[in-house]
Prior knowledge:
This protein has a domain at 40-241: 3-Layer(aba) Sandwich (Rossmann fold). 38% of the residues lie in helices and 12% in strands. The protein is built from ten helices and seven strands. Strand 1, helix 3 (95-111) and strand 2 form a beta-alpha-beta unit.
Amino acid sequence: MSRLEDDQPFIYVKNKRRKKFNPKSGNIKPLVLNHGLPIDKLISNVDHLSHTIDLMVCNTIVEAATMQDLHSTSNGEMLAKQIICYGLGSPSSNRNSRAQLAVLLQLIQALKCPNVFLYDPVFEANDKKLFDNYKLFVLGKNEECLRAVNERTIFYMPHCCWAMYNNVLWANWTPKRLANVVFVGNNIQNKAEAECDSTFKSMYRFICDSLERDMCEVIALPSLNKGMDSFEDTAVIVFHPGRFPIEDKLFWKRGPKPDYKGAHFGELIEKSKLKKARAKEDELTQALKDVSLR
């Protein structure tokens, strides 16, 4: 498109008014859903990725986990009791989601972690079949990333939004619980240094406090194969209890659940909004059924 000259006026274009949907009119376009890859090809694709993807990513995660005594004890007991995966996306529809799932499967095998839970509101039917194949459990409700943990837990959250990390920290904002948290996800140190103004600090207090008090260590992950940005600017974040300001009681007062002032974050969908969206979807589905019966 050529650039407008300085003396060329803007041309105002009147938007065409959209026709309001009327299920009784009979003029309905078929509802097309994107189901992604068939389940057999999906399993084959993820298996292939698990065997060919750069093992340096998984090895770095395991080494960082070992630093936090998550890998094993002297008697072989596994201390990584569970892995919580938020915001994976839809592996049946997204290549990067499949790559992230492949690394997750490697991590499960390396740590021999028995309990793995996933949640993303975009999961499709084939995604859930895929997870069943690998014996991964899909959570039945949206936790809004507010799960409090009393045992060593890896939160696997590559490329999730800031609010999701902040919510995990808020839910575990005690010295005992925070010591159980390990993130595999965004390199919060790089991004916070670039964006940490007063507004950012007030909205994402728990991320900023963790960094400013030097309570955590950030270990950058290597990139995956060229052409894939599944783990670009990703890191393992481990919390060190020895660095916690234990005596500062005011510091550990977390206050009410964070409010992000109506901002929209891709994967973080509040329960009330999710309920309304599902109600509208059910209403549309019923309307289509009513028309088809006529």
